[in-house]
Amino acid sequence: MSIFFAEILGTFILIYLGCGVVAGDLLTFSKAKGSGWIIITLAWGLAVTLAIYAVGNISGAHINPAVTIGLAAAGEFNEQFKGWSDVPIYCIGQLIGAMLGAAMVYFHYLPHWEKTEDKEKKLAVFATAPAIKNTFSNLFSETMGTFILLFLIRAIGSNEFTEGLNPIVVGLIVVAIGLSLGGTTGYAINPARDLGPRIIHFIFPIPGKGNSNWKYAWIPIIGPILGGITGSLTYAALFNYETNWLLFTTSGLTIFVLFLSYFKK
Q1: 241 by DSSP, 3-state: which?
Q2: Residue 131 burial (CB count, 10 A)
Q3: What are 207-217's pLDDT values in tens digits?
Q4: pTM here?
Q5: Distance (Å, rounded) from C-alpha 31 to C-alpha 20?
Q6: CA distance 182 to 175
Q7: How far does Cα 189 stand from its chain's mean position?
Q8: Does residue 154 contact residue 242 with C-beta atoms inside 8 Å?
Q9: Cα separation of 192 and 15, whole Å?
């Protein structure tokens, strides 16, 4: 299997299981309805772990453009991920996989869409949204959540674990982020995870759906990319004593974007 198809498959698994648990929790007549935030965060963490087990030996299972770009920015290349030229291959594969996973969730819960009246819940199955709409706070949440994700992914890569344990640890990182930091925006921390399913919500004939909230869609794209780059580079600076112009440029850009967002209503 090629790296491209591995990223499609890995991200498909992530979204099918991840958005699937949200559908089970929110949609009317689902037997899992009301299972709650802890179940959702655990399922997303397990989805990450299982996706990594599925394709990690082929592509490294980035399954997240923020991970791909963050690792590339730090020069973390290997036999699988060979350089910046691979970044578009990874990111396009991730977006396609996310769309396919979301499409499968749509068909999986097909009779439930018509029975569910709440338009926001239907959108929430596919895409994230803020608990309280505040551009600065929402962008800060997505940026810092992904900063922590990349920082800790780099950290566990520097430790020796029993063979095959790393995917479980990465999944636990995602669970921890969801439980501790996810309540503000639903913790996309992954541009493909939000954009791909949002596109499916937009184009699929979901009965009684509302709009796809495109005004918010830039936050779970820009925030994770900025957070991923700065998290990865900060780890390199603190532990590997590697600093470069990209760390200062990205950090400055992140602060500037957050500053502008503070004044945006």
Answers
A1: coil
A2: 13
A3: 999 999 999 99
A4: 0.94
A5: 13
A6: 9
A7: 4
A8: no
A9: 9
Residue bearing tokens 């963050």: 70
Domain ranges in the chain are: 3-262
Distances (CA, A) of 220 to 55, 155, 226: 25, 24, 10
Reported as a single tens digit per residue, the pLDDT across 17-57 is 999 999 999 999 999 999 999 999 999 999 999 999 999 99
Count of CB atoms situated within 10 Å of the CB of 173: 20
188, two tokens = 């996309």
**Of 172, 149, 134, 126, which Cα lies nearest the Cα of 225?**
149
Residue with tokens 């060979």: 82
Which CATH class name applies to 3-262?
A: mainly alpha
Residue 36: left (phi > 0), alpha (psi -120 to 50), or beta?
A: left
Q: Which amino acid is at 25?
A: D
> What is the spatial distance between Cα 50 and Cα 24, in angstroms, rounded to a whole number?
19
